[in-house]
Design goal:
- It is found in: Periplasm.
- It comes from Parendozoicomonas haliclonae.
- This protein is of the alpha+beta class.
- 38% of the residues lie in helices and 19% in strands.
- It folds into two domains: 60 residues, Roll (Nuclear Transport Factor 2, Chain: A); 139 residues, Glutaredoxin (3-Layer(aba) Sandwich), CATH 3.40.30.
- The strands form three sheets. It has a five-stranded mixed β-sheet with strand order 7-9-8-10-11, with helices on both faces.
- A hairpin with a 5-residue loop joins strand 3 and strand 4.
- Helix 6 runs antiparallel to helix 7.
- The longest helix has 16 residues.
């Protein structure tokens, strides 16, 4: 019973820790070439399609963090014989900190910041731009519509909101066609707003990034909408009211 109470206390501490990060894996140097060769060889024996894109030591001696070409993060022993899945937690500072989630968030921010702003639907900040918030959205998603109603409040506080398309049902879903029409509309922001208000817009097609953004979301681990990423690497799955988001951004 005592062990269960300790575990429960640790989980509560982790939930309260929020975005407080201590030691991070991203600050560590890349693995030595010989180690990477050994680990890649181990993966290749299991499946030639398992390709290590980047490898770095984890804070645990003898264990490395492997970033796979598929986007997954795996932990692997130095000899390549043992693989660990899941999140690595640090309790060095007294409160559990999810080191793996920190890496995921930073990777996501790097990839999102590389997306051409012209391919996203951008709702700019009013006045000085203080923060940027990326949102994978679906026009058929109720909570996405709820969040969209609060975008003016975020804009007024200096937050630029950048929308990426994520039609949850994929290319054959009605939402996909609607989002293509929005991305191809003359006034794209108004088209998106109309759809999220339950209205309809003229059907349109063009060279568009909807599926590219859908695939990017999948690679980042997006499974539902809205999926929010802040410019500091913090990921927020699901809807949060504007005041909560502003508090997370220190605004």
């Amino acid at each position: 019973m005592r062990n269960k109470n300790i575990l429960a206390a640790m989980l509560v501490s982790f939930m309260c820790a929020g975005s407080a990060y201590g030691e991070t894996e991203t600050a560590l140097a890349p693995a030595k070439p010989k180690v990477q060769d050994v680990i890649q060889s181990g993966f290749s024996k299991v499946n030639p399609g398992l390709v290590v894109e980047a490898l770095r030591p984890s804070p645990v001696p003898g264990v490395y963090l492997a970033q796979m070409k598929s986007g997954e993060l795996l932990y692997v022993s130095e000899d390549g014989k043992h693989i660990f899945t899941g999140d690595l937690m640090s309790i060095e500072g007294g409160s559990p900190v999810n080191l793996t989630e920190k890496v995921r968030g930073e990777r996501a921010t790097q990839q999102l910041s590389a997306v051409d702003a012209r391919d996203m639907l951008v709702f700019p900040a009013k006045g000085e731009k203080k923060r940027v918030m990326y949102v994978f959205t679906d026009v058929s998603c109720g909570y996405c519509r709820k969040l969209h109603q609060e975008i003016p409040e975020l804009n007024a506080k200096g937050v630029e909101v950048r929308y990426l398309a994520f039609p949850r049902g994929g290319q054959r879903s009605p939402a996909y066609s609607e989002m293509v029409s929005a991305w191809c509309a003359k006034d794209r922001n108004q088209a998106l707003t109309t759809l999220k208000a339950g209205g309809s817009i003229p059907s349109a097609t063009c060279d568009n990034p909807v599926m590219d953004q859908f695939n990017l979301g999948g690679a980042l681990g997006v499974r539902g909408t809205p999926a929010i990423y802040l410019d500091d690497g913090q990921s927020i799955p699901g809807y949060r009211p504007a005041p909560d988001l502003l508090d997370m951004m220190g605004l």
